[in-house]
Task: inverse folding
């Protein structure tokens, strides 16, 4: 009898626990579905408690054949703007709707403001541009735009990029077999280090490049600052990089007579900027202008490897340019030469569409925002403007996973591109990337030098992964052969 009583008791306790669990789950779902203020929230699903749909999201973009799977499944059920539970945020709305994305980005500082995950903000520092708002953001954004203005691009950057390419590419040729992704990483870092801190390629810039590898890896690592974790390594890298910048500041203060044409020197003349702000600002520019551009270079070569027709047309454009320049292969191109590269612009756009290193933007609603269908995104909720989700969408780009640079020809001719919200690789509004013209210039000059100096063969099969950011899984191992000289 006693045993039966105990069994009955355990059964009852089990049933009560089960009922309580179900009740809590229902309450959680209810609280999630209807905001406490009774708003009609955009439709969506919670996924699992706490981790929500993060795993499905990453599993989706990790699929090389169907990187849009996660979006497609939800879009079918809920539409292009849907609620989710991602990246540890249970109050998040994902948007792949081009018009709404444009609206969100254009209302920065009013209806919305940038709100990147805390681990990222900790790494870029409190004055990293994506972490600041209001007047300070406007001022720093203006400083970045000024640094990268047309007069500097068409003279200083144009010369520096080409000088760097003329000294770096022969080194690649001497090695013959290279991992292009890694080499481009160092190439772009050398350029940014020169422009920002007047550093020439050296052991020091190699160390800085290596530290950036750890820094970038930490951005998506589990934010545990325990020795040995990727996140802790990222912080060590940050400390190392900030120290290098402070040394640069000290050097300039001690030797004011040395003439330098770099951004660090210019920033030190601004009385209103503290050294802490300058250091974070320089670090952010190095970060923002580095991995983004270098990835697009190796992606462009990957796409050209797989599309011989595009390669032939690109090469013809650059051979013709070279011929017009009297076949001087290490001669410098001018701004007009750059602007004449029409097909190159198509290659650049298509590369940015398929392999953009900046997949999306995080924003927080500063007020309740109404969307189509009478839904409301309440104040304080996050909106993830998923740019890659739109760039790979069949509705806006036919055969979206196919590299087809010709799709841009008409749009570029009609100058319709800037009006097209389904293609915004550089974001928009008050945070529109100040480096966009530099990135395109770097890529064009790189392509000119690469296709006129080399033929190449892929050494292994290569695939793109969109997880955690777009990358070439094996780093694009290739063998270089010198290109026959024109007329040889
Ligand atoms: C292919 C190359 C690049 C891509 C795809 C890219 C993309 C982007 C995007 C999408 C944003 C907007 C982020 C947001 O709204 O939250 C952004 C912001 C920014 N980018 Fe770029 N970028 C590239 C290259 C560069 C370069 C070369 C630089 C400078 C050296 C640069 C500097 C910045 C800065 C400073 C911001 C922050 C602007 C602000 O918050 O006010 N980027 N970039």
Result:
């Amino acid at each position: 009898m006693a045993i039966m009583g105990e069994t009955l008791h355990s059964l009852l306790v089990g049933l009560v626990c089960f009922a309580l669990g179900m009740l809590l789950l229902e309450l959680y779902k209810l609280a999630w579905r209807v905001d406490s203020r009774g708003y009609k929230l955009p439709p969506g699903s919670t996924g699992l408690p706490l981790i929500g749909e993060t795993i499905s999201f990453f599993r989706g973009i990790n699929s090389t054949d169907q990187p849009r799977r996660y979006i497609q499944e939800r879009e079918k059920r809920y539409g292009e703007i849907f609620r989710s539970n991602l990246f540890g945020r249970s109050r998040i709305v994902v948007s792949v709707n081009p018009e709404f994305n444009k609206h969100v980005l254009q209302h920065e500082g009013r209806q919305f403001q940038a709100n990147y995950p805390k681990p990222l903000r900790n790494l870029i520092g409190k004055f990293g541009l994506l972490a600041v708002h209001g007047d300070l953001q406007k001022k720093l954004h203006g400083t970045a735009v000024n640094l990268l203005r047309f007069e500097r691009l068409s003279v200083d950057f144009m010369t520096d990029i080409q000088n760097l390419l003329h000294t770096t590419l022969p080194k690649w040729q001497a090695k013959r077999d290279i991992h292009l992704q890694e080499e481009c990483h160092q190439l772009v870092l050398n350029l940014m280090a020169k422009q920002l801190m007047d550093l020439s390629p050296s052991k020091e810039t190699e160390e800085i490049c290596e530290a950036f590898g750890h820094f970038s890896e930490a951005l998506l690592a589990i934010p545990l600052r325990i020795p040995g974790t990727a996140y802790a390594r990222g912080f060590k890298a940050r400390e190392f990089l900030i120290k290098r910048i402070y040394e640069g500041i000290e050097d300039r203060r001690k030797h004011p007579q040395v003439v330098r044409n770099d951004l660090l020197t210019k920033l030190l003349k601004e009385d209103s900027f503290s050294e802490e702000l300058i250091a974070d600002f320089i670090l952010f520019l190095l970060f923002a202008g580095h991995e983004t551009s270098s990835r697009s270079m190796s992606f462009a070569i990957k796409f050209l490897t797989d599309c011989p027709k595009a390669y032939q047309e690109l090469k013809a454009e650059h051979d013709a340019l070279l011929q017009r320049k009297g076949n001087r292969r290490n001669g410098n191109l001018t701004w007009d030469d750059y602007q004449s590269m029409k097909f190159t612009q198509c290659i650049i756009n298509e590369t940015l569409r398929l392999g953009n290193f900046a997949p999306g933007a995080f924003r927080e609603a500063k007020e309740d925002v109404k969307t189509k269908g009478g839904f409301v995104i309440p104040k304080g909720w996050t909106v993830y403007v998923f740019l890659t989700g739109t760039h790979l969408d069949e509705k806006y780009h036919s055969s979206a996973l196919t590299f087809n640079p010709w799709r841009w020809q008409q749009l570029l001719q009609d100058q319709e591109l800037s009006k097209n919200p389904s293609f915004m690789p550089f974001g928009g509004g008050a945070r529109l990337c100040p480096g966009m013209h530099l990135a395109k210039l770097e890529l064009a000059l790189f392509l000119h030098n690469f296709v006129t100096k080399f033929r190449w063969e892929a050494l292994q099969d290569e695939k793109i992964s969109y997880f955690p950011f777009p990358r070439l899984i094996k780093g694009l191992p290739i063998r270089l052969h010198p290109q026959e000289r024109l007329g040889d």
